[in-house]
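F.,

This is the one I mentioned.
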């Protein structure tokens, strides 16, 4: 049995697949096998993979129909492999040759650690680095913490950081301890975009976390990515609320923190609603309200406050003029009336 099982879930990433597979095979740590999971691609992905197929430690699993979920593929990959550690190497990303050689010892030396991950850089479709690290994503939580390697308690990690956002934004940067992943029942398949975030949280409620500050993973951003496609339809914000509710049901979160998170989610929804490229409609807004109402006390007041805040700070006259003066006046009266 290999020390590491590498899973490459793929859907229509023929353009990047050869580079991805080669970056795995070029690892300085070689005690691994590789499983390619194709989710019914319609491009030349499988022809690209066929160039590597003759190697004995490489195998493929092909879906006849698209699963509709990257997290179903994660779980399928785990069931098909046996390595003590698992690397979900997403098919459009790229790894430094020392990725495994660096992260495997972090798990070996810390038996309580369930997740070890590295810093990432961000690249475009042409492999041009346009963000050397992802520190900017987390610096609002702590400007210095991700500058250095660390090992931390998993529950505290959830309370202080993961409750606000997914501080592990790219699965390709993560090496997973199989026993912890299996203990939580695998990835959450009901979440389309944020199943990774939920998975990290569930694992860290049972284990600790290790981080390497060296950017050993290149996270590719392009218009065909899942994140790009769902950025304008509100899926991420709705799933964020569900995840944060799950955290609050599992561990103690201060009320002020809960309110701050709620306000940020509602503010994000309002901003997205007014975005010209947004695909949100009235039905989506109703669904969001119903979901938010289950998690946010006095939701109407929070929505009104965030809407007024948005209008106050909106620089575009066109957006301001979209709401009649009479409605603005009514909103102010509601906000000033006793709860």
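My design for it:
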């Amino acid at each position: 049995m290999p020390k590491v099982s590498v899973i490459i879930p793929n859907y229509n990433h023929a353009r990047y697949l050869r580079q991805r597979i080669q970056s795995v095979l070029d690892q300085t740590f070689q005690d691994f096998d590789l499983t390619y999971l194709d989710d019914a691609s319609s491009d030349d992905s499988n022809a690209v993979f066929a160039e590597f197929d003759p190697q004995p430690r490489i195998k493929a699993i092909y879906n006849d129909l698209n699963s509709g979920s990257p997290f179903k593929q994660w779980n399928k990959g785990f069931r098909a492999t046996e390595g003590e550690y698992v690397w979900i190497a997403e098919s459009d990303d790229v790894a430094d040759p020392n990725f495994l050689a660096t992260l495997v010892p972090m798990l070996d030396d810390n038996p309580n650690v369930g997740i070890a991950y590295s810093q990432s850089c961000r690249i475009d479709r042409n492999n041009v680095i346009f963000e050397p690290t992802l520190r900017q994503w987390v610096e609002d939580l702590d400007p210095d913490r991700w500058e250095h390697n660390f090992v931390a308690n998993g529950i505290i990690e959830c309370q202080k950081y993961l409750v606000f956002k997914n501080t592990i934004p790219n699965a390709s940067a993560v090496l997973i301890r199989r026993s912890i992943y299996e203990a939580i029942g695998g990835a959450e398949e009901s979440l389309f975009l944020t199943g990774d975030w939920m998975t990290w949280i569930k694992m860290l409620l049972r284990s600790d976390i290790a981080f390497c500050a060296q950017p050993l993973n290149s996270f590719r951003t392009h218009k065909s990515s899942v994140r790009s496609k769902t950025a304008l339809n509100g899926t991420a914000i709705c799933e964020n609320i569900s995840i944060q509710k799950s955290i609050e049901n599992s561990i103690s979160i201060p009320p002020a923190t809960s309110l701050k998170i709620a306000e940020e989610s509602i503010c994000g929804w309002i901003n997205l609603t007014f975005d010209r490229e947004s695909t949100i409609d009235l039905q989506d807004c109703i669904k969001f309200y119903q979901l938010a109402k289950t998690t946010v006390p006095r939701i109407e007041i929070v929505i009104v406050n965030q809407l007024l805040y948005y209008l106050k700070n909106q620089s575009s006259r066109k957006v301001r003029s979209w709401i009649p003066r009479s409605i603005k006046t009514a909103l102010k009266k509601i906000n000033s009336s006793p709860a």
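The chain has two domains: 4-228, 231-336.

Talk soon.
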